[in-house]
Amino acid sequence: MLEKFPTKNHLDGLLALRGFACLMVVNIHCNPPRNALFYQSYNLSWLTFSHGPVAVWIFFVLSGYLMGKVFYTERYTPDVQGVLNFWRNRAIRILPLYYFAVFILCLFVYTEIFKIEYWGYLIRVCTFTYHSQMVSQQIAFDYALWSLSTEIQFYILIPFIYNFFRHRLMNQKHILIAAVCVIGVTFVLKLIAWISFRNQISEQMEYAFKYWYAPLSNSLDLFLCGFLINPLLKYQHLNRLKISNNFKWLNSSKKIISVILLLVLYLFTAYHLYHQELWGLIGRPSGWRTSTTIFLLQPLTAIITSFFIFAFESEDYYGFTKNEKLSFATILRNPFRILEILGNLSYGIYIWHMPIIGKITPVFTSDIPIEAFYNRLTATTILSTALAVITYYLVEIPAARWKIYRPSQNITHQLIKENEISWISKHKD
Fold this sequence. Notes:
Distance between the termini: 23 Å
Shape: globular
Strand content: under 5%
Number of helices: 15
Oligomer: single chain
Protein backbone atom coordinates (compact mmCIF):
# COMPACT_ATOMS: atom_id res chain seq x y z
CA MET A 1 0.00 0.00 0.00
CA LEU A 2 1.55 3.30 -1.08
CA GLU A 3 1.85 6.12 1.39
CA LYS A 4 0.28 9.49 0.73
CA PHE A 5 2.53 11.68 -1.41
CA PRO A 6 4.66 14.01 0.76
CA THR A 7 4.47 17.73 0.10
CA LYS A 8 7.13 20.39 -0.30
CA ASN A 9 7.30 24.14 -0.68
CA HIS A 10 10.01 24.49 -3.31
CA LEU A 11 10.40 27.01 -6.10
CA ASP A 12 9.06 25.75 -9.43
CA GLY A 13 12.12 26.47 -11.56
CA LEU A 14 10.30 26.19 -14.87
CA LEU A 15 7.65 28.73 -13.91
CA ALA A 16 10.38 31.08 -12.69
CA LEU A 17 12.23 30.65 -15.99
CA ARG A 18 9.03 31.37 -17.93
CA GLY A 19 8.55 34.58 -15.93
CA PHE A 20 12.19 35.57 -16.52
CA ALA A 21 11.85 35.06 -20.29
CA CYS A 22 8.62 37.09 -20.30
CA LEU A 23 10.37 40.00 -18.56
CA MET A 24 13.17 39.79 -21.15
CA VAL A 25 10.62 40.26 -23.93
CA VAL A 26 8.93 43.19 -22.18
CA ASN A 27 12.30 44.78 -21.45
CA ILE A 28 13.58 44.85 -25.03
CA HIS A 29 10.22 45.98 -26.44
CA CYS A 30 10.39 49.02 -24.13
CA ASN A 31 13.38 50.14 -26.26
CA PRO A 32 16.29 50.64 -23.83
CA PRO A 33 18.42 53.61 -24.95
CA ARG A 34 22.02 53.42 -26.11
CA ASN A 35 24.83 55.28 -24.31
CA ALA A 36 22.61 56.02 -21.32
CA LEU A 37 24.10 54.00 -18.47
CA PHE A 38 27.69 54.64 -17.39
CA TYR A 39 29.84 53.80 -14.39
CA GLN A 40 32.96 55.95 -14.37
CA SER A 41 34.28 55.49 -17.94
CA TYR A 42 32.51 52.18 -18.58
CA ASN A 43 29.46 52.06 -20.82
CA LEU A 44 27.04 49.59 -19.15
CA SER A 45 24.04 50.39 -21.33
CA TRP A 46 24.22 46.91 -22.86
CA LEU A 47 23.08 45.36 -19.56
CA THR A 48 19.55 46.59 -20.26
CA PHE A 49 19.49 45.09 -23.79
CA SER A 50 17.92 41.71 -23.15
CA HIS A 51 17.94 39.67 -26.35
CA GLY A 52 14.30 39.29 -27.43
CA PRO A 53 14.79 36.28 -29.74
CA VAL A 54 16.63 34.43 -26.95
CA ALA A 55 13.63 34.96 -24.66
CA VAL A 56 11.26 33.54 -27.29
CA TRP A 57 13.62 30.60 -27.84
CA ILE A 58 13.51 29.85 -24.11
CA PHE A 59 9.72 29.67 -24.40
CA PHE A 60 10.08 27.23 -27.32
CA VAL A 61 12.43 24.92 -25.38
CA LEU A 62 10.08 24.93 -22.39
CA SER A 63 7.16 24.17 -24.68
CA GLY A 64 9.02 21.26 -26.27
CA TYR A 65 9.76 19.78 -22.87
CA LEU A 66 6.28 20.23 -21.39
CA MET A 67 4.45 18.94 -24.46
CA GLY A 68 6.69 15.87 -24.50
CA LYS A 69 6.25 15.34 -20.77
CA VAL A 70 2.47 14.97 -20.97
CA PHE A 71 3.01 11.94 -23.22
CA TYR A 72 6.05 10.45 -21.47
CA THR A 73 4.31 10.60 -18.10
CA GLU A 74 1.19 9.09 -19.70
CA ARG A 75 -1.06 12.05 -19.08
CA TYR A 76 -2.18 11.39 -22.64
CA THR A 77 -2.05 8.10 -24.49
CA PRO A 78 -0.58 7.93 -28.02
CA ASP A 79 -3.81 6.61 -29.52
CA VAL A 80 -6.56 8.43 -31.40
CA GLN A 81 -8.56 9.38 -28.30
CA GLY A 82 -5.48 10.48 -26.38
CA VAL A 83 -4.19 12.64 -29.24
CA LEU A 84 -7.61 14.23 -29.74
CA ASN A 85 -7.80 15.01 -26.02
CA PHE A 86 -4.32 16.56 -26.20
CA TRP A 87 -5.23 18.79 -29.13
CA ARG A 88 -8.52 19.71 -27.49
CA ASN A 89 -6.82 20.72 -24.24
CA ARG A 90 -4.16 22.71 -26.08
CA ALA A 91 -6.91 24.59 -27.91
CA ILE A 92 -8.66 25.28 -24.60
CA ARG A 93 -5.37 26.58 -23.17
CA ILE A 94 -4.49 28.90 -26.06
CA LEU A 95 -7.61 29.95 -27.94
CA PRO A 96 -9.92 31.53 -25.32
CA LEU A 97 -7.45 34.16 -24.12
CA TYR A 98 -6.06 34.65 -27.63
CA TYR A 99 -9.43 35.38 -29.23
CA PHE A 100 -10.59 37.42 -26.24
CA ALA A 101 -7.47 39.58 -26.58
CA VAL A 102 -7.91 39.90 -30.35
CA PHE A 103 -11.52 41.01 -29.83
CA ILE A 104 -10.58 43.64 -27.23
CA LEU A 105 -7.63 44.91 -29.27
CA CYS A 106 -9.74 45.22 -32.41
CA LEU A 107 -12.39 47.22 -30.54
CA PHE A 108 -10.14 49.59 -28.59
CA VAL A 109 -6.61 49.61 -30.02
CA TYR A 110 -6.37 48.56 -33.67
CA THR A 111 -9.79 49.76 -34.80
CA GLU A 112 -8.65 50.35 -38.40
CA ILE A 113 -8.49 46.58 -38.91
CA PHE A 114 -12.28 46.60 -39.45
CA LYS A 115 -11.82 48.49 -42.71
CA ILE A 116 -12.50 46.26 -45.71
CA GLU A 117 -8.96 46.66 -47.09
CA TYR A 118 -7.57 45.22 -43.84
CA TRP A 119 -9.85 42.22 -43.47
CA GLY A 120 -7.11 40.02 -44.87
CA TYR A 121 -4.97 40.91 -41.86
CA LEU A 122 -7.86 40.14 -39.52
CA ILE A 123 -8.30 36.72 -41.12
CA ARG A 124 -4.58 36.07 -40.72
CA VAL A 125 -4.72 37.07 -37.05
CA CYS A 126 -7.66 34.74 -36.41
CA THR A 127 -6.05 31.80 -38.24
CA PHE A 128 -2.58 32.07 -36.66
CA THR A 129 -0.96 32.98 -39.99
CA TYR A 130 -0.17 36.61 -39.18
CA HIS A 131 3.07 38.22 -38.14
CA SER A 132 3.88 41.90 -38.02
CA GLN A 133 6.78 41.78 -40.44
CA MET A 134 4.88 40.65 -43.51
CA VAL A 135 6.17 42.31 -46.65
CA SER A 136 4.37 45.59 -47.43
CA GLN A 137 2.29 45.39 -44.28
CA GLN A 138 -0.19 48.21 -43.79
CA ILE A 139 -1.25 47.65 -40.18
CA ALA A 140 0.82 47.05 -37.06
CA PHE A 141 -1.34 44.64 -35.07
CA ASP A 142 0.09 43.17 -31.85
CA TYR A 143 3.25 41.66 -33.33
CA ALA A 144 4.04 39.58 -30.26
CA LEU A 145 1.33 37.16 -31.41
CA TRP A 146 3.49 35.67 -34.17
CA SER A 147 5.17 33.13 -31.86
CA LEU A 148 1.82 31.55 -31.01
CA SER A 149 1.51 30.49 -34.64
CA THR A 150 4.79 28.59 -34.39
CA GLU A 151 3.67 27.05 -31.09
CA ILE A 152 0.38 25.87 -32.61
CA GLN A 153 2.23 24.17 -35.46
CA PHE A 154 4.37 22.31 -32.94
CA TYR A 155 1.32 21.23 -30.93
CA ILE A 156 -0.10 19.62 -34.06
CA LEU A 157 3.12 17.68 -34.67
CA ILE A 158 4.03 16.64 -31.12
CA PRO A 159 1.97 13.36 -31.01
CA PHE A 160 3.68 12.22 -34.21
CA ILE A 161 7.09 13.23 -32.87
CA TYR A 162 6.45 11.26 -29.68
CA ASN A 163 5.35 8.14 -31.57
CA PHE A 164 8.44 8.39 -33.77
CA PHE A 165 10.92 8.67 -30.90
CA ARG A 166 9.41 6.59 -28.10
CA HIS A 167 10.60 3.20 -29.42
CA ARG A 168 13.85 4.48 -30.93
CA LEU A 169 15.46 6.15 -27.91
CA MET A 170 16.46 3.10 -25.89
CA ASN A 171 19.35 4.57 -23.91
CA GLN A 172 21.21 7.81 -23.20
CA LYS A 173 23.51 7.29 -26.18
CA HIS A 174 20.53 7.23 -28.54
CA ILE A 175 19.20 10.44 -26.98
CA LEU A 176 22.54 12.20 -27.43
CA ILE A 177 22.75 11.11 -31.06
CA ALA A 178 19.19 12.30 -31.66
CA ALA A 179 19.99 15.71 -30.15
CA VAL A 180 23.09 16.10 -32.31
CA CYS A 181 21.13 15.12 -35.42
CA VAL A 182 18.33 17.58 -34.61
CA ILE A 183 20.78 20.45 -34.12
CA GLY A 184 22.62 19.45 -37.30
CA VAL A 185 19.50 19.23 -39.46
CA THR A 186 18.21 22.57 -38.17
CA PHE A 187 21.61 24.12 -38.87
CA VAL A 188 21.42 22.91 -42.48
CA LEU A 189 17.89 24.32 -42.90
CA LYS A 190 18.98 27.70 -41.58
CA LEU A 191 22.08 27.58 -43.78
CA ILE A 192 19.91 27.04 -46.86
CA ALA A 193 17.77 30.04 -45.93
CA TRP A 194 20.89 32.10 -45.20
CA ILE A 195 22.50 31.27 -48.54
CA SER A 196 19.28 31.95 -50.45
CA PHE A 197 18.27 35.21 -48.72
CA ARG A 198 21.39 36.43 -46.98
CA ASN A 199 21.07 40.13 -47.79
CA GLN A 200 17.35 40.20 -47.07
CA ILE A 201 17.69 38.34 -43.76
CA SER A 202 20.60 40.55 -42.70
CA GLU A 203 19.10 43.91 -43.53
CA GLN A 204 15.30 43.63 -43.67
CA MET A 205 13.26 42.65 -40.64
CA GLU A 206 10.33 41.28 -42.65
CA TYR A 207 12.52 38.79 -44.49
CA ALA A 208 14.34 37.81 -41.32
CA PHE A 209 10.96 36.96 -39.80
CA LYS A 210 9.67 35.18 -42.87
CA TYR A 211 12.68 33.04 -43.76
CA TRP A 212 14.60 32.63 -40.51
CA TYR A 213 12.89 33.63 -37.27
CA ALA A 214 9.27 32.50 -37.61
CA PRO A 215 9.38 29.14 -39.48
CA LEU A 216 8.92 26.08 -37.28
CA SER A 217 11.52 24.21 -39.35
CA ASN A 218 14.20 26.67 -38.20
CA SER A 219 13.21 26.22 -34.55
CA LEU A 220 13.23 22.42 -34.43
CA ASP A 221 16.44 22.36 -32.41
CA LEU A 222 14.71 24.42 -29.71
CA PHE A 223 11.51 22.40 -29.46
CA LEU A 224 13.15 18.99 -29.84
CA CYS A 225 16.06 19.62 -27.45
CA GLY A 226 13.43 20.39 -24.83
CA PHE A 227 11.43 17.34 -25.91
CA LEU A 228 14.46 15.02 -25.62
CA ILE A 229 14.93 15.91 -21.96
CA ASN A 230 11.93 13.66 -21.26
CA PRO A 231 13.43 10.29 -22.29
CA LEU A 232 16.68 11.37 -20.61
CA LEU A 233 14.88 11.99 -17.32
CA LYS A 234 12.86 8.82 -17.73
CA TYR A 235 15.93 6.62 -18.05
CA GLN A 236 17.67 8.47 -15.22
CA HIS A 237 14.65 7.82 -13.03
CA LEU A 238 14.64 4.10 -13.85
CA ASN A 239 18.35 3.91 -12.96
CA ARG A 240 17.91 6.00 -9.85
CA LEU A 241 17.96 2.98 -7.55
CA LYS A 242 21.63 2.49 -8.39
CA ILE A 243 22.54 5.93 -7.06
CA SER A 244 23.40 6.41 -3.41
CA ASN A 245 21.76 9.07 -1.27
CA ASN A 246 25.25 10.46 -0.75
CA PHE A 247 25.05 11.92 -4.25
CA LYS A 248 21.89 13.95 -3.68
CA TRP A 249 24.05 17.04 -3.38
CA LEU A 250 24.56 16.75 -7.14
CA ASN A 251 20.97 17.94 -7.69
CA SER A 252 21.66 21.22 -5.91
CA SER A 253 24.95 21.65 -7.77
CA LYS A 254 23.24 21.14 -11.13
CA LYS A 255 20.64 23.77 -10.29
CA ILE A 256 23.27 26.32 -9.28
CA ILE A 257 25.30 25.67 -12.43
CA SER A 258 22.20 25.91 -14.64
CA VAL A 259 21.24 29.28 -13.13
CA ILE A 260 24.77 30.59 -13.63
CA LEU A 261 24.77 29.41 -17.26
CA LEU A 262 21.42 31.13 -17.83
CA LEU A 263 22.77 34.41 -16.44
CA VAL A 264 25.89 34.08 -18.61
CA LEU A 265 23.63 33.50 -21.62
CA TYR A 266 21.74 36.69 -20.81
CA LEU A 267 24.92 38.74 -20.42
CA PHE A 268 26.57 37.35 -23.54
CA THR A 269 23.54 37.84 -25.78
CA ALA A 270 22.82 41.31 -24.36
CA TYR A 271 26.42 42.36 -25.06
CA HIS A 272 26.20 40.90 -28.55
CA LEU A 273 22.90 42.64 -29.27
CA TYR A 274 24.34 46.00 -28.20
CA HIS A 275 27.84 45.88 -29.69
CA GLN A 276 27.65 43.52 -32.67
CA GLU A 277 24.04 43.83 -33.80
CA LEU A 278 23.95 47.54 -32.94
CA TRP A 279 20.37 47.34 -31.73
CA GLY A 280 18.79 50.78 -31.29
CA LEU A 281 21.46 52.61 -33.25
CA ILE A 282 20.00 55.43 -35.35
CA GLY A 283 20.31 54.68 -39.05
CA ARG A 284 20.97 51.00 -38.50
CA PRO A 285 18.97 48.60 -40.76
CA SER A 286 16.31 46.76 -38.81
CA GLY A 287 17.33 43.15 -39.43
CA TRP A 288 19.68 40.85 -37.55
CA ARG A 289 23.07 41.32 -39.13
CA THR A 290 25.39 38.71 -37.68
CA SER A 291 25.83 35.05 -38.48
CA THR A 292 26.43 34.51 -34.76
CA THR A 293 22.76 35.23 -34.09
CA ILE A 294 21.65 33.04 -36.98
CA PHE A 295 23.75 29.97 -36.27
CA LEU A 296 25.16 30.09 -32.73
CA LEU A 297 22.78 31.78 -30.32
CA GLN A 298 19.84 29.52 -31.11
CA PRO A 299 21.48 26.11 -30.41
CA LEU A 300 23.32 27.68 -27.46
CA THR A 301 19.98 28.75 -25.99
CA ALA A 302 18.55 25.29 -26.67
CA ILE A 303 21.41 23.55 -24.83
CA ILE A 304 21.54 25.87 -21.81
CA THR A 305 17.76 25.95 -21.36
CA SER A 306 17.58 22.16 -21.71
CA PHE A 307 20.24 21.78 -19.03
CA PHE A 308 18.27 24.13 -16.78
CA ILE A 309 15.16 22.00 -17.26
CA PHE A 310 17.13 18.81 -16.61
CA ALA A 311 18.62 20.23 -13.42
CA PHE A 312 15.28 21.33 -11.95
CA GLU A 313 13.23 18.32 -13.09
CA SER A 314 15.65 15.45 -12.45
CA GLU A 315 14.90 15.20 -8.73
CA ASP A 316 11.19 14.44 -9.10
CA TYR A 317 10.26 13.97 -12.75
CA TYR A 318 7.08 11.99 -12.07
CA GLY A 319 5.90 14.31 -9.31
CA PHE A 320 5.85 11.79 -6.47
CA THR A 321 6.50 14.70 -4.11
CA LYS A 322 3.70 17.22 -4.48
CA ASN A 323 4.53 20.91 -4.31
CA GLU A 324 2.21 23.03 -2.20
CA LYS A 325 -0.18 25.24 -4.12
CA LEU A 326 1.12 28.75 -4.60
CA SER A 327 -0.44 31.09 -2.05
CA PHE A 328 0.43 34.02 0.18
CA ALA A 329 1.23 31.58 3.00
CA THR A 330 3.61 29.47 0.89
CA ILE A 331 5.35 32.64 -0.37
CA LEU A 332 5.83 33.80 3.22
CA ARG A 333 7.57 30.51 4.02
CA ASN A 334 9.55 30.52 0.76
CA PRO A 335 9.88 34.06 -0.70
CA PHE A 336 11.55 32.72 -3.86
CA ARG A 337 8.18 31.36 -4.95
CA ILE A 338 7.04 34.90 -5.74
CA LEU A 339 8.91 34.36 -9.02
CA GLU A 340 6.26 31.81 -9.98
CA ILE A 341 3.60 34.52 -10.16
CA LEU A 342 5.07 35.98 -13.34
CA GLY A 343 5.38 32.47 -14.74
CA ASN A 344 1.68 31.79 -14.19
CA LEU A 345 0.76 35.14 -15.74
CA SER A 346 3.33 35.05 -18.55
CA TYR A 347 0.84 34.17 -21.31
CA GLY A 348 -1.34 37.15 -20.47
CA ILE A 349 1.60 39.51 -19.99
CA TYR A 350 3.04 38.42 -23.33
CA ILE A 351 -0.21 39.10 -25.16
CA TRP A 352 -1.00 42.46 -23.53
CA HIS A 353 2.38 44.16 -23.23
CA MET A 354 2.82 45.36 -26.84
CA PRO A 355 -0.48 47.31 -27.12
CA ILE A 356 0.26 48.85 -23.72
CA ILE A 357 3.73 49.94 -24.85
CA GLY A 358 2.22 51.53 -27.93
CA LYS A 359 -0.20 53.56 -25.82
CA ILE A 360 2.11 54.67 -23.00
CA THR A 361 5.28 55.49 -24.95
CA PRO A 362 4.08 59.01 -25.90
CA VAL A 363 3.10 59.58 -22.26
CA PHE A 364 6.26 58.49 -20.45
CA THR A 365 8.86 60.82 -21.89
CA SER A 366 11.87 62.49 -20.33
CA ASP A 367 14.95 64.53 -21.25
CA ILE A 368 16.95 61.71 -19.67
CA PRO A 369 16.65 58.62 -21.94
CA ILE A 370 17.28 56.04 -19.23
CA GLU A 371 14.59 57.62 -17.04
CA ALA A 372 12.04 57.40 -19.85
CA PHE A 373 12.98 53.76 -20.36
CA TYR A 374 12.60 52.90 -16.68
CA ASN A 375 9.21 54.64 -16.63
CA ARG A 376 8.03 52.72 -19.72
CA LEU A 377 9.29 49.42 -18.34
CA THR A 378 7.71 49.93 -14.92
CA ALA A 379 4.37 51.10 -16.32
CA THR A 380 4.25 48.31 -18.91
CA THR A 381 5.09 45.62 -16.36
CA ILE A 382 2.46 46.84 -13.88
CA LEU A 383 -0.31 47.38 -16.43
CA SER A 384 0.27 44.18 -18.39
CA THR A 385 0.47 42.19 -15.15
CA ALA A 386 -2.79 43.76 -13.96
CA LEU A 387 -4.51 42.89 -17.24
CA ALA A 388 -3.01 39.39 -17.12
CA VAL A 389 -4.42 38.87 -13.61
CA ILE A 390 -7.87 39.93 -14.78
CA THR A 391 -7.87 37.67 -17.82
CA TYR A 392 -6.27 34.84 -15.83
CA TYR A 393 -9.30 34.67 -13.55
CA LEU A 394 -11.85 35.82 -16.11
CA VAL A 395 -10.77 33.66 -19.08
CA GLU A 396 -7.93 31.20 -18.43
CA ILE A 397 -9.12 29.50 -15.25
CA PRO A 398 -12.77 29.10 -16.35
CA ALA A 399 -11.61 27.69 -19.71
CA ALA A 400 -9.27 25.21 -17.99
CA ARG A 401 -12.27 23.51 -16.35
CA TRP A 402 -13.27 22.15 -19.78
CA LYS A 403 -10.08 20.14 -20.18
CA ILE A 404 -10.27 16.34 -20.34
CA TYR A 405 -7.51 14.08 -19.03
CA ARG A 406 -6.93 10.36 -19.08
CA PRO A 407 -8.07 8.68 -15.85
CA SER A 408 -5.25 8.01 -13.40
CA GLN A 409 -4.20 4.47 -14.29
CA ASN A 410 -0.43 4.86 -14.31
CA ILE A 411 0.76 1.53 -12.94
CA THR A 412 4.35 2.33 -13.92
CA HIS A 413 4.47 5.20 -11.46
CA GLN A 414 3.20 2.98 -8.66
CA LEU A 415 5.79 0.28 -9.37
CA ILE A 416 8.61 2.82 -9.41
CA LYS A 417 7.41 4.28 -6.13
CA GLU A 418 7.20 0.82 -4.53
CA ASN A 419 10.74 0.06 -5.68
CA GLU A 420 11.96 3.34 -4.22
CA ILE A 421 10.32 2.63 -0.87
CA SER A 422 11.81 -0.89 -0.88
CA TRP A 423 15.26 0.42 -1.78
CA ILE A 424 15.15 3.10 0.95
CA SER A 425 14.09 0.56 3.59
CA LYS A 426 17.06 -1.65 2.69
CA HIS A 427 19.63 1.16 2.76
CA LYS A 428 18.46 3.36 5.63
CA ASP A 429 20.81 3.84 8.54
